[in-house]
Structure formats: C-alpha cells, structure tokens
Design goal:
Helix content is about 45%, strand content about 20%. It contains ten helices and ten strands. By secondary structure, it is of the alpha/beta class.
C-alpha cells in the first residue's frame, strides 16, 4: 500500500477520537505524524496491512487496545529528572509533612508517581525518602502508567549503564548492584514500590495520598481532560498534601482547588483543607 494513502484524514479522525475516548490523550494535526509512524510499526508487528482492519481489531480486543495505547505514548524519563523538584521535595515538602502528620501520630508517607514510565521517577523518590526520613517514619509508593511494557521494566528494576547517569555515586553504590551491562536496584527499594497499570482517564481508587507526582503527562491532554485528571488527583489526596507537575505545565486558569506554591527550589501545588 502506498504511503500517501496509508492514513487518510478520515482515518486520523477515527483514531484520534478513539484514543481520546479511551485515554484522554489528545492528538492534533501537529503530532499526527507520530501517530502514523507508531501505527505503521504496530501493523508491521501484527502482520496487518490496513489501518481500518487494525481499528476494527482494537475496538474488539481490549488487550490489543492496551498494547496500541502503550505504543503511542512517549516515555522519556531519567533518574533525578528536573533536580529542582527533588530539592523542593527534600527541603520543603517532606519537612512540612513531618510536622503535619506527626501531630496526628501518623508516621507514614504515601506517594503516587502517576505516569511513571520505566520507573526512574518512583525509584528516585524512594531513594531520596529513604535517605531523609528519620525513624520511625515509613513510606509507600504507587507507580502507575498506561504502558505495560514500561511497567515491566520498572518491576524488573534493571537499568543499562547509559540509563543510570544522573544518579549520585553514593546512591548508585548504596542502592544498586552492578551486573552485566547495567545495574539492578536492591530488593528492599523495589519492595517500597507497587507498579500498577492505570489509565488516568479513570479514578485510581487511591485515597489519602500525601504526595502526587504527575510530570510531563498533562501536556498530552486537552483542557477538559487535564481538568478532569487534576480534579481526580484532588479527590485522591489527603487534606494536606502536595502535587508536582512538569516544569512546562501549569494549572493556571484551570477550574481546580489547588494552591500554587513557589519555593526556593521549584514551584508546585498543594491541597490544604
């Protein structure tokens, strides 16, 4: 089939609506080429020649629909990505939470890494909390993504030599074992994180979270979907809690109850009710 008829305007509209309805991810004309290239890869892998036949397949096969949504997401991440956020976590958020929660006799911090990709973000959070929380404080992290492939990488806890750049040497020595062609994170750190498939279009069922990280994910949604996602975060978070979003993302002008917080290190949002 010739490239010029591989993906018509009608096909694009059909897929665009399906993707939006199923995930909230918003494709526009400017990123149509990304969708088209991912579709070509998927059809080649499945041995299917027509985008119409494949569309019919994913409307009937929920597992293949998950695989398709996995294939169209961009999973760019690294350890300690945007260091300023982790500085704010260490020097502002955690001290605030220790004061708030200690007063109620609660010595546990609950974190959600939403859109965790291949696990670098939740493992970074885990290492940092392990370093800075005094006894008897404990923490638990839920890490979720729409990509099953990424979640499997996170669960495995293995990262190649090229992917551990950015981890301080002291952390690398303390929390990883050097293995062939890479590093494996220690089992005790892995046990702190529960990796789970989740589509942000739906309620996670999580409640009383103290910290939510959802960085560089909202940019894939249109305004309506962004607002819905952010309001679901609000519902999942404790009365006094904190939200981190990407440095290029903002809740400005959005119908949300979160307060903007500017710290010495980074900007973030809080729920204080």
């Amino acid at each position: 089939m010739a490239d010029d008829v591989f993906f018509t305007d009608a096909d694009f509209e059909m897929y665009r609506k399906l993707i939006y309805n199923e995930s909230g991810i918003h494709f526009t004309a400017t990123n149509r080429s990304i969708l088209e290239s991912r579709l070509k890869e998927r059809l080649r892998e499945k041995g299917i020649s027509s985008v119409r036949i494949y569309f019919d397949t994913i409307t009937k096969d929920k597992e293949e629909l998950k695989n398709f949504l996995d294939s169209i997401t961009t999973n760019l991440t690294r350890f300690f990505r945007n260091q300023a956020h982790f500085d704010a976590l260490e020097h502002h958020v955690v001290p605030e939470l220790l004061k708030i929660k200690k007063a109620s006799g609660n010595f546990s911090i609950k974190v959600w890494s939403a859109g965790c990709s291949t696990g670098e973000e939740p493992y970074t959070i885990a290492m940092l909390l392990n370093e800075i929380l005094p006894p008897p404080w404990k923490f638990e992290i839920v890490a979720s993504d729409i990509s099953l492939k990424c979640l499997m990488t996170g669960k495995e806890g293995f990262y190649s030599d090229t992917r551990v750049t950015g981890i301080p040497d002291a952390y690398l020595k303390k929390y990883f074992d050097k293995v062939e062609s890479g590093y494996k994170i220690h089992a005790d750190m892995m046990s702190k994180i529960r990796f789970d498939y989740h589509n942000l279009k739906n309620d996670s069922g999580l409640r009383n979270l103290d910290i939510v990280f959802c960085r560089n994910v909202l940019i894939y949604f249109d305004e309506a979907a962004q607002t819905a996602v952010v309001n679901r975060f609000w519902d999942s978070m404790a009365a006094k809690s904190f939200l981190f979003i990407g440095h290029s993302e903002s809740l400005f002008g959005m119908a949300t109850k979160f307060e903007f917080v500017k710290t010495q290190w980074a900007t973030l949002y809080r729920k204080f009710v």
